[in-house]
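Here comes just one.
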Amino acid sequence: MRQFSESYRSYAPMLLLIGTDDEEVKPERCAQISDIAKRNGSDWQFVLYPGVEHSYDTPTKKRESVEANKLAAIDSKKRAEAFFKKFTR
């Protein structure tokens, strides 16, 4: 995994949505990167959803059977719409 220095700053606004139960991406690492980026002035939003798995918004029976996944999918769509709306006229 690429290491991010304490001076990391994103070159574009970022919306990072992840669940605490993600099986593929370490939520702790995402939190660390987010903290560094925000500290250095990045336009960065980080949301950590409790009990939510990787690909939580994939419309499959397995993913949709987890209530936390369903709620996070609804919330993340609202957040994404608001995020991208900032960049449209």
User: Anything to note?
Assistant: Strands lie at 14-19, 44-49.
